[in-house]
Amino acid sequence: MSILDSKIQIWNSWSQLLEDKKKVEQDLFIAQENIEKVKVGENLFEKYIKLTSTTGKIYEEIMNRLSKEFSDNQVKYEVVTYNFRKKDHLDLASYYNKSGQWVSYNSASSGQKTILDVNFLSKIVTRLGILVMDEFLKSLDPENHDVCIEEILKLILAETFNLTSDLNAHNLAGLLSRHTTINHGIHLVDLL
Asked: Residue 52: CB partners within 8 Å, gap ≥ 6?
């Protein structure tokens, strides 16, 4: 009987192993299905991130609309893509119109860069905004100085603080409604 008991025990062990194998295979199948679901979710999430990231189609469309809205006959804006530290970025490039030739920001003179900066600020500053500038007009020739002042006048600001030590304050004061020197060359200017 001992041989028969031994063979029955082997059979029972074999049957248990088959049942365990079947259960493990079912668990493995369920795990594989879950992995596939996660892969599909990951793929959808990656598409969502690409769509909504700062280099995605939504952001790019917003930037394209802004570039069209911000551009005029003096300054043109374009959306550019560049790679920095192995990551793509979108940016708004500005160009100055010099006698019908568009000059990029990097190639512009310091006076033209100031005009481009003021133009950009005039596009983004809101009615309730505060704009702080530090000696931003110092590199301008008289012609570009007047262009910048006109752009600044287009800004509808509550207050502008112009910190400078070498600005010709009486020229600026003539264009603005009120000009007060506080101390140490700090000028508080309220726009019209």
From this structure: 58, 59
pLDDT digits (tens, 9 = 90+) for 7-21: 889 898 999 999 999
Q: Phi and psi for 87 in degrees, rounded to 5?
A: -135, 135
State which H helix or E strand residue 12 sits in. Answer: helix 2-52
More confident residue, 187 or 90: 90
Q: Which amino acid is at 20?
A: D
**pLDDT score at 82:** 87
Q: In whole angstroms, how far apart are CA 22 and each of 12, 32, 81, 93, 107?
A: 15, 15, 55, 63, 72
- What is the maximum span of the chain, computed from C-alpha positions, in angstroms? 120
Supply angle C-alpha 113, 119, 123, rounded to 5. Answer: 145
The C-alpha atoms of residue 82 and residue 100 are separated, in whole angstroms, by 26
Indicate the DSSP class of residue 175: H
Length, in residues, of the chain = 192
- Measured CA to CA, the distance from residue 86 to residue 102 in angstroms comes to 30
Residue 32 has pLDDT above 80, yes or no: yes
In the block, which residue shows the tokens 């952001």?
59
- The pLDDT value recorded for residue 185 is 40
Are residues 118 and 148 in contact, defined by beta-carbon separation less than 8 angstroms? yes
